[in-house]
Amino acid sequence: MAKRTAKEWALRLAPLAAIAGLVIAFFALGWNRYLSMDLIREHGLNLQAYAQQNWWIALIAFIAVYALATASTIPGPVFLTLLGGMMFGPYVGALAQSTGATIGSVVIYYVYRTSIGSWLRAKFEADAGFMDRLAKGIDRNAFTTLFTLRVIPSVPFVLVNATAGMMAVPLRPYIIATFIGLLPSTFIYTWIGSQLGGLLRAGVRPDLPMLLQQFFWPLMGVVFLSLLLPIGIKLFQMIRARRIGATAA
């Protein structure tokens, strides 16, 4: 494995540095205040009205903004998801969010893969140790592994993007698992978002405690995906492994 020069490393790491700089600027300029409930309280009804009058423009713009937010790894996409449900309804909102998040995830995947992912993968193969076996194991079950990570909301989204790029996992299952795996929890959030327009028109100024009280059971669905689903997946895998072992015997 040929050694790279300092200039080559600088070029490869430049996109990572750019993302880090964008995150720093995001907080330094105070843009983080826009990714909060204030976004919905102050601009939700106007954006909803705009989406009704300019549906395709609003939809494309929303997907682009969500992709940018995902690619830049800035916090607060959940508020964009709520806004997507308010603007487009739960079904289109969920598809739009998942599309934007998938596009942004692919950007992050390529940033990490082209900067250090390919180098790490080659190093794993050269060492032929645990990390090489782990990477190849992910390759063999890429869709199942990534889908499981995506469908559980408590797994850090950015961490999955970065790890997949650094492991240089196959791109096709990465894209499909990301898009499909995001839909269950996203639909819950966009459904909640679709209800916020009526609350705002009634003069209610929603905040997080109110959301927890008003939409307790839908939010319990997110908790189910985060806590109970991993147990269910693990039990399913154990039962499947036992059946395969019994059949082989």
UniProtKB/TrEMBL annotation:
Segments passing through the bilayer: 12-35, 55-80, 92-112, 174-192, 215-236
Localization recorded for this chain is: Cell membrane
Task: Identify the InterPro entries for this entry.
Answer: TMEM64, VTT_dom
| Residues of the VTT domain | 74-195
Is Cell membrane one of the keywords? yes
Q: Quick one: signal sequence residues?
A: none
User: Per the annotation, which location comes first and is thus the protein's main one?
Assistant: membrane
- Decide whether keyword Transmembrane helix is in the record: yes
Keyword set, alphabetical order: Cell membrane, Membrane, Transmembrane, Transmembrane helix
Membrane-related topology note: Multi-pass membrane protein
Q: Which GO terms describe its cellular component?
A: plasma membrane
Similarity comment text for this entry: Belongs to the TVP38/TMEM64 family.
Name listed for the protein in its UniProt record: TVP38/TMEM64 family membrane protein
What is the protein's species of origin? Brevundimonas vesicularis
